[in-house]
Amino acid sequence: MWTWIMTALLVACFAMGAWQRYKPLPDGVSVAFPERDAHEIRFLADETWYTPSGERHTRCQIFDEVLAMIGQAQRLVVLDMFLFNDFAGAADGQTFRPLSAEVSDALIAQKRQYPELEAVVITDPLNTLYGGIEVDHFQALRDAGVEVVITNLNRLRASNPLWSGIWHLGPRWLGNDSDGGWLPNALGPGRVPLRSYLALLNFNANHRKTLVVDHGDGWAGLVTSANPHDASSLHGNVALRFEGAAALDLLASERSVAGWSGVKLAGPAPPVSEETSPEPVRLQVLTEGAVRDALLDAIQASAEGDHLDIAVFYLAHREVIAALVAAHTRGVAIRLLLDPNRNAFGLEKGGIPNRPVARELHEAGIRVRWCVSRGEQCHSKLLLRRPAEPGVEAEMILGSANFTRRNLDDLNLETSVCLSGPADTPALLDAAAFFERRWKSTPQRITSEPFEAHDDTTAWQRLRYRAMEATGLSTF
C-alpha cells in the first residue's frame, strides 16, 4: 500500500510540475506592443565611480524623475516595482538613500492634494516575505487611499518545476501568517514563518519596474532597471522616460497584472494603429518573452562593422550567448560590460553566472570588462546597437529584464522598451555616452576593470551555471 501511495504522490508531483512549467500564459503576458511615435524621450542613468583614493561618487537621475512624475499627476499613477522596501540584508548599517520612504511619501502627498487621484502600487510578494510579515509603508499607503496590489505569482509558469509541483499540491494551500514567524528574516528585521521560505523556492517574480502617470492632457511613462529599495540606491541603473501612445501601452501591460488581483485600472486604452509607426524615432513596449525576441532580433540584425554594446547585471541565456558569438564571427564589434557577481547586500556571491559566461565569450574573442563595484551592483539591463553605415538607424533595448532564462522565457514578469531611430537621436546619444563613461575607466574616474581582474572561473562554476540555467534552480 505504501509503495502505491508513494508512487501516486510522485506521479502527482511530476504531473503538477509539468503543468506549472508548460501551462498556458495568462492574457497580457509576453506582448510586443506596436511601434509608436513617442516624444519627450529621455535616457536616465544612476552611476557610481571611484577616485584613486577609493572615494565613491554617485550621480542619480532615475528616482528624481520618478518623484517628479508622481508630483505632477492629478488623475492616475500606476507604479509597478519589484523591490519596494527598506530591507538591507547583511548590509544593514550602511548609509543608503531612503528610496522606499521617498516614493511612499510622494504618493501619499499627491493623493492628499488630489483626493480623486487613482494611485495604484503593484509589487512582488517578496516585499512581504510572501505574506509572512507586515510592511509599515504598505499599510501607510493603504491608509492614505493608495491601492497596493501584491502580484498573484500563481498565474505564472514555474521557474523551478521540481519544487513547484510539490508547492501547488500542498504548501500553497496553507496560506501564510504574519504573526507566526519563528525563522530569521534573511532580507531584513523580524522573523518569518517557514511557509515564506517554501514560497520563495518557486523562484519566480514580478520583476517589472514601471511607472505611468497622467501628464497634462496626455500620458507619460518610465521603464527602468532600478528599484525603490533603499539598499539598491547605490546601484548603477538605466531608465527611459517618454510620452505619447507608448505610455498607454505601458498602462495596458499593467492592467492585466492588476486584474489578477481583482483591481481594475482606470485610464484609456491604447489607440489602434498600424504595426509600424512612420515616424523616424519609434518606441515599443515589450514584456516577458517579447523582450527575448527583440534582443535576438537586434543581435542577429547587426552586420559587419556595426557596434553592439551591452551592460547587464546577469548574462546567462544560451540563445543570447550563441547569437553574440555568431555576431562576433561575422565582424560585429561587441563590448560586454558585466557585474562581477561577487556581492549582494553584504553577502559574498560565487561569481555565477557572469564569470563562467565571460570566460566563454572571452575565449570566443569578444571584449569583456567588469564594472568596478564595492558593495553596489552594476544593475543595468542595456543593449545598444549602432550601425557602421551612415543613415542606418540605431536601436536600444533597456528595462527590467536580465539576459537569463528566468527573465526572458516567460517565467518572471518583465518590461523593457525598444527605441529605434537615427543614430543622432538624443536619447541614443546619451545612452552611448553612458556606456563610454563606464567602459573607459580613467585613473581619476575609475569605473571598470579588464577581464583578467576576475578571470577565476573553475570547471565547477561552469558546471553549476549550466545546471542552474537549465533547471531553474537558481536566483538569477
Topology:
Elements: H1 2-22, E1 36-50, E2 56-59, H2 62-72, E3 76-81, H3 99-113, E4 118-123, H4 136-143, E5 147-150, H5 161-169, E6 183-184, E7 191-192, H6 194-200, E8 209-215, E9 218-224, E10 237-244, H7 245-260, E11 282-287, H8 289-301, E12 307-312, H9 318-329, E13 333-338, E14 343-344, E15 347-348, H10 354-363, E16 367-371, E17 381-386, E18 394-399, H11 405-408, E19 415-421, H12 426-439, E20 448-450, H13 459-471
Parallel strand pairs: 3-4, 4-5, 12-13, 13-16
Antiparallel strand pairs: 1-2, 1-10, 1-11, 3-8, 6-7, 8-9, 9-10, 11-19, 12-17, 14-15, 16-20, 17-18, 18-19
Condensed summary:
Helices cover 32% and strands 23% of the residues. It has 476 residues and is of the alpha+beta class. The protein folds into two domains: 37-253, 2-Layer Sandwich (Endonuclease, Chain A), CATH 3.30.870; 281-471, Endonuclease, Chain A.
CATH structural class of the largest domain: Alpha Beta
- Counted up, domains total 2
Rg computed from alpha carbons, rounded to a whole number of angstroms:
22 Å
Give the helix level as a range of percent: 25-40%
Q: Strand fraction band?
A: 15-25%
Q: What is the structural class? A: alpha+beta
Main sheet: strands, sense, barrel = 16 strands, mixed
Query: Uncertain segments of ≥5 residues (pLDDT<50)?
Result: none
State the CATH architecture of the largest domain: 2-Layer Sandwich
- CATH homolog superfamily of the largest domain: Endonuclease Chain A
Describe the model.
The protein folds into 2 domains: 37-253, Endonuclease Chain A (Endonuclease, Chain A); 281-471, Endonuclease Chain A (Endonuclease, Chain A, 2-Layer Sandwich), CATH 3.30.870. The protein has a 16-stranded mixed sheet that branches. The radius of gyration is 22 Å and the shape is globular. The longest helix is centred in the first third of the chain and has 21 residues, at 2-22. The protein contains 13 helices and 20 strands. The protein has 476 residues and is an alpha+beta fold. The protein has helices at residues 2-22, 62-72, 99-113, 136-143, 161-169, 194-200, 245-260, 289-301, 318-329, 354-363, 405-408, 426-439, 459-471, and strands at residues 36-50, 56-59, 76-81, 118-123, 147-150, 183-184, 191-192, 209-215, 218-224, 237-244, 282-287, 307-312, 333-338, 343-344, 347-348, 367-371, 381-386, 394-399, 415-421, 448-450. The chain starts with a helix and ends in a 5-residue tail after the last helix.
